[in-house]
């Protein structure tokens, strides 16, 4: 039993959450994003829209099937006959079926991103090929229905069965998985078992142009083109009266769609979209005045996030009906920047840079969106603030202070510009007003605030003022710091001033602000929330706000409401701090992420009401928030790679779904394989996006080229990335997105490989290896030859060295020999000289001896003549004989000849051999001539006279066969 109760509670909570999430806001107009034909660059007319399993959107455009990936638009395929596409449907495998003008078929995405269209018209019988627009296409479990006014085509098992009308079909309807057609003669007919079955008592429908049928508890709800809405039940057709009948009957219904929560969105031809609930109450009317670019609605579809996509006769619109935020629009576009808003006496007042405006708030909340803001005359310039003080509404304007009563304004004080007013806590009848140059005082007299005077002693701009319980006045100056003022007893002048800036504890003296939360003063800084320490009087970080808001953001606004919720603007984020049942606190920011960068800097303003309305004044108008409207902000979505192209040497697409790509640019890769690129295509350009359509411009991306980069990049809003000069490798390009709610998408990847240049391929390396081998062989061969040459040269060198050494040795030996020869020569010369001297001496001695002997002989000869010859004759003859013997000198001559031949190279022998006729006396004479003796020196040596020597010389000349002119001495010396 307990389990059942728990389940029941759980189902109740889930159902309640679903209902809350399904609520359509009645207050304000949802955010609308218009996509013009100039934006998507295709035909203006669009007829249908669908979303595949990934979240990609496709539109039936006059030019073909158009794809939108959140960033880029492109035509991805066209029918075979190039006609306009009128209807789309998709199966569980993301095969898209399309109906065109005179054609229908399907398209599938290939590995390279391209969509290939296959027409099914060739399956039709010859008599059934003449038909017009295929207005509806529906995918069943194992069958596809193509509807045209000329027939219904049932495609199954690659065959088509044609269901013909009796005359013509008016329309096609899908009602709770049952399918009907309206025959102009037979009425409503159901498609069942591949045939048409008439629905009883519906022939009356034949005269009504029914655009859409819904099944409700009250019966069938019929949307007719011009007659409004009807309920069909129990064979009765009754009008369904709504608050929007005046709109529906006058503006021709074109299409309808059922929304969760019991709402119906009805598209018209002339007044845009009308949203009603199941009771017929008007919830929204979205037309051109409310922001829709065109009022002819051709189709409506809800995407996975609950957003409403609208195809128009001209353009496409995204309406964020699931958002808790909406815009309080004025169709007159009178208001611009909103500096403040205030709901007072059922009127909504807005302070703008063009004056003050108001509208009836209760009427507007009832769904009467055509209620306009009205201008309050008297204030045409910047109205900075609004405030209700003791039941009186005051406006603070550039020229002074005004009292607002209904739709009129009365100036109560002309000042040099008024920023805001604050009531003194202990004096509720005194109002302190901050101006451009100081403070003013107003007093409550007779239910009206009356100007008193300007307070003396302080002349700083006082745009931001708070007053604590002790009536200390805190004035924040954005560029100087914080002033703490104390007024004198009569409130006419400032009695004391204390100044706080960075030196007093603030992280900076710039952009300081002051707020009052639960009677306590806090200060907004560029680094979190600060407060004054009671003991030290220094400014210190507040621990509560430090815990929930941190210390890194600029606190631009703090404001509490009557439900103890603290609203804040921290940095660019808006949020609130709520107390939980367990006494803790939690922050909530996600519902307000759309408000980023929308505030007027320095004039952030939030207004709350007891009914739960929250109004944000922005530079783009007034934004309304309803806390009861819930939304799942953690929805999963995908990032996608839209296009990949190689840049060099020319743009060459590798992956793209664009239809205008030349077929040769994209060659289909086999399933599971990835592109393999030559090294010349090593520069790639990636285009990517995310299939998240809520504030798509604020989506951020990070990427990572695995194989080239070490990790993910920083987050960026760029949707393209380019890489150049990629080295050869296998790569994986990763991309993921982060939407405005900080939800990170599923990543998309693209694998590819870049081949090395031809000089770094395997074949090149093989060739290099072979060349290296040849080179090594050549080097070895060369080294071997070189070694052999070096060896030969070394041998030759060694031989040369040896020869040189030998030559040097020989030279040295020769030198030594020469030296020895010189020594020998010297010795020989000395010997020769000695012997010559000896010979000469002997010769001289001999000559002398011979001379003596000749003298003796001459004396003996004389003695012999004088004495008796008979007496001494024998003795003298003996002496004469001895002397003759000595004169012969044979013995001495032999010694002389031996020495002479040694000295003169065997002169005597050579001369004798050459001239054998020479006698011994001749030889002696020649020897003496060789010794360069003269005739007188020779005569004694030969023992003859000078005349005898001359005669002998003459005989020798003949024997030597010398001419008369020849010098015999020279001949002997040179022989």
TrEMBL record:
Q: Which InterPro entries match?
A: Ig-like_fold (IPR013783), Quinoprotein_ADH-like_sf (IPR011047), Sig_transdc_resp-reg_C-effctor (IPR016032), Tscrpt_reg_LuxR_C (IPR000792), WD40/YVTN_repeat-like_dom_sf (IPR015943), WH-like_DNA-bd_sf (IPR036388), Y_Y_Y (IPR011123)
Q: Any transmembrane segments, and where?
A: 763-780
Q: Name one GO biological process term.
A: regulation of DNA-templated transcription
The UniProt entry, under Pfam families, shows: Y_Y_Y
- Name the Gene Ontology molecular function terms of this record: DNA binding; phosphorelay sensor kinase activity
Q: Which UniProt keywords apply?
A: Coiled coil, Membrane, Phosphoprotein, Transmembrane, Transmembrane helix
Identify the domain of life: Bacteria
Q: Where is the HTH luxR-type domain?
A: 915-972
Q: Which residues form the signal peptide?
A: none
Descriptive protein name: ABC transporter substrate-binding protein
Q: Which organism is it from?
A: Flavobacterium hydrocarbonoxydans
């Amino acid at each position: 039993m307990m389990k059942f109760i728990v389940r029941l509670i759980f189902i109740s909570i889930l159902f309640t959450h679903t209902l809350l999430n399904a609520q359509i806001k009645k207050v304000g107009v949802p955010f609308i994003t218009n996509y013009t034909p100039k934006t998507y660059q295709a035909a203006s007319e669009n007829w249908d829209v669908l979303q595949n399993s990934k979240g990609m959107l496709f539109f039936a455009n006059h030019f073909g099937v158009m794809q939108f990936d959140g960033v880029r638009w492109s035509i991805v395929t066209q029918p075979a006959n190039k006609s306009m596409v009128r209807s789309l449907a998709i199966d569980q495998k993301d095969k898209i079926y399309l109906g065109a003008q005179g054609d229908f078929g399907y398209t599938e995405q290939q590995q390279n991103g391209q969509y290939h269209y296959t027409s099914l018209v060739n399956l039709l019988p010859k008599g059934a090929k003449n038909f017009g627009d295929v207005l509806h296409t529906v995918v069943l479990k194992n069958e596809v229905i193509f509807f045209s006014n000329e027939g219904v085509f049932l495609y199954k098992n690659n065959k088509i069965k044609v269901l013909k009308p009796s005359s013509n079909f008016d329309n096609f309807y899908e009602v709770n998985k049952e399918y009907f057609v309206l025959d102009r003669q037979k009425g409503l007919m159901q498609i069942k078992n591949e045939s048409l079955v008439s629905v009883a008592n519906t022939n009356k429908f034949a005269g009504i142009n029914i655009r859409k049928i819904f099944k409700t508890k009250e019966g069938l709800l019929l949307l007719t083109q011009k007659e409004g809405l009807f309920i069909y039940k129990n064979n009765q057709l009754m009008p369904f009266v709504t608050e929007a009948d005046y709109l529906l009957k006058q503006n021709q219904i074109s299409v309808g769609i059922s929304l969760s929560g019991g709402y119906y969105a009805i598209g018209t031809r002339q007044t845009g979209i009308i949203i009603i609930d199941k009771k017929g109450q008007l919830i929204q009317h979205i037309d051109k005045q409310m922001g829709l670019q065109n009022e002819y609605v051709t189709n409506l579809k809800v995407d996975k996030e609950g957003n409403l996509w609208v195809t128009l006769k001209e353009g496409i619109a995204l309406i964020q009906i699931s958002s808790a935020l909406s815009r309080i629009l004025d169709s007159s576009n009178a208001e611009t920047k909103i500096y403040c808003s205030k709901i007072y006496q059922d009127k909504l007042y807005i302070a703008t840079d063009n004056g003050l405006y108001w509208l009836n708030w209760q009427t507007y909340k009832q769904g009467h969106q055509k209620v306009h803001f009205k201008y309050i005359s008297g204030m045409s310039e910047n109205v900075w603030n609004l405030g209700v003080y003791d039941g009186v509404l005051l406006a603070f304007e550039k020229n002074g202070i005004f009292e607002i009563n209904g739709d009129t304004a009365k100036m109560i004080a002309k000042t040099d510009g008024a920023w805001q007013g604050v009531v003194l806590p202990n004096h509720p009848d005194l109002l302190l007003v901050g101006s451009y140059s100081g403070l003013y005082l107003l007093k409550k007299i007779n239910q009206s605030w009356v100007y008193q005077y300007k307070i003396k002693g302080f002349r700083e701009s006082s745009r931001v003022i708070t007053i604590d319980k002790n009536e200390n006045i805190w004035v924040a100056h954005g560029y100087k710091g914080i002033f703490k003022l104390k007024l004198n007893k009569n409130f006419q002048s400032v009695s004391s001033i204390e100044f706080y800036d960075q030196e007093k504890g603030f992280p900076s003296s710039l952009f300081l602000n002051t707020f009052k939360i639960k009677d306590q003063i806090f200060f907004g800084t560029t680094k979190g929330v600060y407060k004054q320490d009671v003991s030290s009087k220094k400014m210190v970080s507040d621990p509560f706000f430090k815990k929930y808001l941190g210390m890194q953001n600029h606190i631009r606004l703090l404001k509490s409401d009557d439900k103890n919720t603290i609203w804040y603007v921290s940095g660019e984020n808006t949020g609130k701090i709520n107390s939980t049942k367990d006494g803790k606190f939690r922050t909530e920011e996600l519902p307000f992420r759309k408000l980023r960068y929308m505030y007027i800097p320095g004039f952030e303003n939030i207004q709350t009401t007891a009914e739960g309305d929250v109004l944000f004044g922005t530079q783009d108008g007034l934004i309304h928030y309803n806390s009861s409207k819930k939304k799942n902000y953690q929805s999963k979505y995908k990032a996608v790679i839209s296009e990949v192209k190689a840049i060099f040497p020319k743009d060459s697409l590798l992956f793209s779904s664009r239809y205008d790509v030349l077929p040769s640019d994209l060659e289909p890769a086999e399933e599971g394989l990835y592109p393999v690129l030559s090294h010349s295509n090593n520069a790639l350009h990636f285009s990517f996006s995310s299939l998240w359509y809520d504030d798509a411009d604020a989506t951020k991306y990070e990427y990572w080229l695995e194989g080239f980069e070490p990790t993910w990049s920083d987050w960026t809003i760029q949707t393209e990335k380019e890489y150049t000069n990629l080295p050869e490798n296998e790569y994986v390009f990763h991309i993921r997105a982060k939407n405005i709610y900080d939800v990170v998408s599923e990543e998309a990847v693209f694998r590819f490989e870049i081949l090395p240049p031809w000089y770094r391929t395997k074949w090149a390396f093989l060739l290099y290896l072979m060349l290296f081998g040849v080179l090594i062989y050549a080097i070895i061969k060369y080294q071997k030859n070189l070694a052999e040459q070096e060896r030969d040269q070394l041998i030759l060198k060694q031989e040369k060295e040896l020869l040189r050494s030998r030559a040097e040795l020989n030279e040295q030996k020769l030198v030594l020999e020469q030296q020895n020869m010189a020594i020998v020569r010297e010795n020989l010369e000395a010997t020769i000289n000695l012997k010559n001297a000896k010979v000469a001496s002997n010769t001289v001695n001999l000559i002398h001896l011979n001379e003596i002997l000749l003298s003796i002989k001459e004396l003996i000869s004389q003695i012999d003549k004088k004495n008796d010859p008979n007496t001494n004759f024998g003795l003298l003859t003996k002496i004469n004989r001895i002397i003759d013997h000595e004169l012969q000198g044979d013995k001495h001559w032999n010694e002389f000849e031996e020495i002479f031949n040694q000295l003169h190279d065997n002169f005597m022998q050579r001369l004798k051999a050459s001239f054998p006729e020479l006698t011994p006396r001749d030889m002696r004479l020649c020897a003496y001539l060789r010794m360069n003796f003269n005739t007188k020196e020779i005569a004694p040596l030969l023992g003859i006279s000078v005349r005898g020597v001359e005669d002998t010389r003459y005989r020798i000349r003949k024997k030597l066969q010398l001419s008369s002119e020849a010098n015999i001495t020279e001949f002997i010396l040179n022989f």
